[in-house]
Amino acid sequence: MAYSPRRSALSAISTPQPSGTLNTVIIPESILTPSPEEEIIQQRSRCRRAAAQASRQQIKFITREFLSDDVDEDDDLMGEDNDTPIRTAKTVCQATRKRLVLSPKKGEGKTASTQPKRQRVHRKKKAVPLATELQGLTQAQLIDIIEEVASKHPELEQEIRESIPTPDIKPLEDKLNYLQRNIFKSFPNTRWGSSRDSFCYRRVRTHLEAFKKTCIEQGRTLVHSQAYEGAINYVLMAWNYIEDNPNWDDPSHNNSKYQCFKNLASQCMTSLKKSTLEKEKYRDFKERIEEAVGINDEIEPCLTQINKILDKLQ
């Protein structure tokens, strides 16, 4: 294959003709010469390149003059026989790096005149009365404290037992009073039939169950703690609250009321059998139990039991 030289982009293009002769295409000179717009663009690029080159040369000149001035000043200060090397851009960078490496760490270089850090002043706890501190404790915490003191000092146990008073049932009564008020508050304001019908019962049923649960649990707690005198007082006090609860038209709706009477009567009987009280206390309980029998006869066996106790004490 014969070698054919490359053609310039602006050279004439020859196209073969059918007859085998070459036909040369001539490009007009107006196309080869640049237009005025192109000349302006080329002139702007040349100006930019020249300005950039001039600015770089000016920066080099200023840097050279600055370094030469520093060297002259050092020579004047040290004298003509100064052996200090000339400061160049490289030595300046090295000196800066050296200062950064040798700079003292934070906290170093403090003189003895620095004031010491002020110490925090711990406030002394003020003496609080014992009764005030005990008020914030729960019943279980108080029991643990008393048991611990009694175990460390056995001679105090009998004195603690003699100092235990009769349980105060006033908070228990307030709880029953609060639950009973909730029962009557839950009655519907407008009703078409009886206020003791099934519709009203469904409205107050939740509060009736809450009253029954609290009434029985409070008495059971007193019996388990062997506070028999307080348990009897509680039963006779709660007997009137149970009676004041509504009686419903449907007998099956009165089951919660009957369960309260039955459980409290059983607690009263247990307390009477296990108690060791004075004769005057039993006589007082007998009068109150007789009144309770007139309200509901579930407590009548307790009256028989207290008569037996009084007969033995005579």
Describe this structure in words.
With 314 residues, this protein is mostly helical. The protein has 12 helices and 2 strands. It has helices spanning 29-32, 36-78, 89-102, 130-135, 139-152, 157-163, 170-185, 198-224, 228-244, 255-274, 279-295, 300-313; strands at 13-16, 22-25. Strands 1-2 form a two-stranded antiparallel sheet. α7 runs antiparallel to α8 (198-224). The longest helix is centred in the first third of the chain and has 43 residues, at 36-78. It is elongated, with a radius of gyration of 56 Å. The relative contact order is 0.05. Residues 12-17 and 73-82 have low confidence and may be disordered.
Give descriptors for this structure.
314 residues, mainly alpha, two-stranded antiparallel sheet, 12 helices, elongated
Shape: elongated
User: What is the H/E string?
Assistant: EEHHHHHHHHHHHH
Major beta-sheet overview: 2 strands, antiparallel
Radius of gyration: 56 Å
Could you say which structural class the secondary elements and strand pairing correspond to? mainly alpha
Low-confidence spans: pLDDT under 50, at least 5 residues?
12-17, 73-82
From the N-terminal CA to the C-terminal CA, the straight-line distance is 153 Å
Strand arrangement, largest sheet?
1-2
Q: Find the count of extended strands (DSSP E, 2+ residues).
A: 2
Share of β-strand residues:
under 5%
Instruction: Figure out the total of helices.
Output: 12
**Arithmetic mean of pLDDT:** 79
